[in-house]
Amino acid sequence: QGQEKLSCNPKKENGTHVVLCELGNPMKAGAQITVDLELSVSGLEDMGEDITFHLQLRSKNSPSSSNASVTVTVPVEAEAEMELRGNSLPATTVLPTSWHWVEGSRRLEDHGIKVEHVYELHNKGPGTVSGITLSLAVPHLLGDHVLLYLLELGTEGGMNCSHHPALNPAQV
Questions:
Q1: Over the stretch 145-159, which tens digit does the pLDDT of each residue have?
Q2: N or C end of the chain: smaller count of CB under 10 Å?
Q3: Please, are residues 35 and 23 in contact by the beta-carbon 8 Å criterion?
Q4: Cα-based angle 76, 80, 84 (whole degrees, multiple of 5)
């Protein structure tokens, strides 16, 4: 009858986190109650695919060997929304009609106009992420002709990169 908030107290017992909730004192014989528990658990990144809860009813009044116990296994599902943002600096580039590529040159200006592409990968949460792979395909050839001369690739924020074999082939 009606709904009441339970008084629950978290504590550690034998290295295990325990939450004790008082359901009623005294409770009449044959009473039936329904309890909905909402638990907030953090730090599940390394828990694997599921987490197990052991639920048990205990009576303070009369010790009983039939203290009802049940195990509930809940799957752990990580949720994170990733967002990729990109910019080119300058945003627009026009190659002059008088410009010609100088084969074998080691001067940067003989390979075209410098354009920097910056990409940012953002985790919008709510969970943390690890082991993310971002594959970026850049068209550097048009047939047998160089379309974009890929000069360098850099990262920030503890990321690892594998470089494309066409990166700075003339060692400019």
A1: 877 878 888 888 777
A2: N
A3: yes
A4: 155
